[in-house]
Structure formats: C-alpha cells, structure tokens
Amino acid sequence: MTSLHETGVTVRAPAKINLHLGVGPVRPDGFHPLATAYQAISLFSTVTATPADDWAVTCTGQVGIDTAGVPLDDTNLALRAAKLLAREHGVDQPVALHLDKGIPVAGGLAGGSADGAAALLACSLLWDLSLPPARLLELAGELGSDVPFGLVGGSASGHGRGELVEPLEDHGRYDWVVLTFDTGMSTPAVYADFDVLHEGVEVPDPEIPPALVAALRAGDARALADAVGNDLQPASLRLRPQLAEPLRAGLDASAYAALVSGSGPTCLFLCGDPDHAASVAAALSPYGRALVCHGPVPGATVL
Ligand code: C5P
Predict the structure, then answer these.
(1) Cβ neighbours of 178 (radius 10 Å)
(2) pLDDT class for 4, splitting at 50, 70, 90?
(3) Which residues contact 118 (CB under 8 A, 6 or more apart)?
(4) Is 266 within 8 Å of 109 (Cβ atoms)?
(5) I want to staple 276 with a disulfide (CB 3.0 to 4.6 A). Which of 84, 231, 256, 272 is the partner?
(6) What is the DSSP letter of 165?
(7) Which fold has domain 3-167?
(8) Ligand 1 pocket residue status of 263, Cβ below 6 Å
(9) Among residues of the chain, what percentage have pLDDT more than 70?
C-alpha cells in the first residue's frame, strides 16, 4: 500500500431529487422500469476511507440530521460499496469508513446512495485502482438504483431501474426548498402501494417529458415548474396523507411547483431565486425542517 494515502481519502457526494419520476409496471425481478430526470442538490454526505486492521463504519450527522436509522453493520451501503470494490479488484486492505451525513435519512433524497457513491470513489483512490468511470458506474449500479447518479451528479436522465444514467444539458440554476420530516418512509412500501393503486390498470411505459428536457436546456425555472412530476406521489400521499397540507402551503406561499421527492416523505418546492426560496421556507417551517438548497451541483468529488 502506498504511503500517499495513510491519512485517508475524503469524498463528498450530493443528495438527489427527481425532477420527474416516471414509473412503469413492476418487472418480474420486483423492480419498476423508470424514466426519470435527476438533479443533484446542495446537501452533501462525506465519506472518509482510512486504511485499518479491520472493516469498520462510523457515522455522525451534521446539524439537524438524525442518524439513528443508519445501520453500522454489513448492510451499510458505504461498507457494502467498499467490500464489493475490494472483492471485485483483489484488494486485501480493510478500511475504516467515517460518514458525516448532511442528507436526511430515509427521506427520498438518496442519502444512503450518496454514501455508497462516495465510498466507491474514495476507496478506488485509496487503493490506487485507476478504474475507468464506466467500471465505477457498473459497480454503483449493483449497489442500488440511485448510486450511479451519486457519482455523475448535475442533471441527468435515469433509465432501467434508475441506474442507467446520462447527463442532461442544463443551463440553469434552480433554487429549491427541501422540506424534511423526522419520520422517514420505506421506498419498497411506496413502490408496493404504487402496484396496489395500479392493479388491473395498464401502466404505460414511462418517459421523461420533452418539455422538461427543453426547460433544463433553456435554464428556465418557470418552464421546469410546469414539467415536474412524480408517479409515486399518489402512493406516498396515501401512506402519508398529511403531506398534502405542506404541498398546498408551499404553492400558497408562491412556490412555482411543489412535489414529493422520490418515494417521500421529503417535499420539494421550486422557487425563482434565493430570496424567494427563503420566504417560501419561512412559510413551510411549521410543517417540518425547511432547507434552502440549489441545483444542479457536481457528483462525488474528492475533498
Ligand atoms: O435499488 P434500491 O436498493 O434503491 O431499491 C430499493 C427498493 O425500491 C427495491 O427493493 C424496490 O422495492 C424498490 N424499487 C423499485 N423499482 C426501482 C427502484 C427501486 O421497485 N426502479
């Protein structure tokens, strides 16, 4: 092992939102075909990988982030990422991983996936593996549907079960209020409810609205507001009906658009500029923790 990295490598990766989440009929493997437009926003998780005698993972939360639900065993996505990379590339050097989470847990913002993406990049550098980006993306796709996007960042399309990611041309900056709640939601439970809602109904193949692609290309937040959407939102609202109230309150407070993020419960409010976002956030603060963010931001980055 080179002495270059004895002090460890730190990588940060962003939260994702789905500007549009198109969901198709459940596949035989239990996953759903997606056509989604991702955007990386300015909430980050950092992972530090340090050579160690044994595999280990520790976790802290940035201000306001409750990490009680983060597993510290072999199911932890960052640890799974490190071990997968070691196994696939013949590395015999355990690492201690430290996660510092700034992305709410189980919120529909792919916080665990960001940890997985950051751990993959950090360990590949720590171990001097010199892997082509396509190989890291392939391993990321094995770990979870949203992990490849954590590496790519920016604005991007996602197909397959979300793991097939291609950058989208985006000339805008978008100001978001991200409303988070203390209690998370289970992604599998929301997809299962989507299936119940669509029983006996023919679900068309999902697609990303061309108007959304055009809005990003033009960098036009108002046009983007007209094109956002989430096919999981009815299921999330059925499981958590009280989300209807803040969604309505955000629109009443003049947000351009309001939608559930991924499987929820986090809600997203598109605004015109940072001051607008601050005033929408103030109106939403009775309902949860309202964070002012912007996107797009880059994917996993070495610090
Ligand atoms: O891939 P990931 O581990 O993030 O998926 C978590 C769960 O979400 C899956 O086990 C599945 O129940 C559901 N899912 C799905 N279709 C997708 C992505 C996720 O049904 N495209």
Answers:
(1) 27
(2) low
(3) 11, 12, 13, 45, 46, 47, 78, 150, 300
(4) yes
(5) 272
(6) E
(7) Ribosomal Protein S5; domain 2 (3.30.230)
(8) no
(9) 98
Q: How far is the CA of 145 from the centre of ligand 1 (A)?
A: 7
What are the structural domain ranges in the chain? 3-167, 174-295
Which is catalytic among the residues 100, 146, 193, 231?
146
Nearest Cα neighbor of 213 from 203, 226, 202 is 226
200 lines ligand 1 (CB under 6 A): no
- 40 forms beta bridges with 16
Token pair 């709410």 is found at: 104
Rounded-to-5 percentages of helix, strand, coil across the chain: 35, 30, 40
Query: In 3D, which of 167, 161, 162, 168 has the Cα closest to residue 227?
Result: 168
**259: CA distance to ligand 1 center in Å?**
20
ipTM above 0.90, yes or no: yes
Residues 6+ apart with CB under 8 A from 223: 211, 214, 215
- Tell the CATH topology of 174-295: Alpha-Beta Plaits (3.30.70)
pTM listed for this prediction: 0.96
Q: Which atom of ligand 1 is nearest to the CA of 146?
A: 4
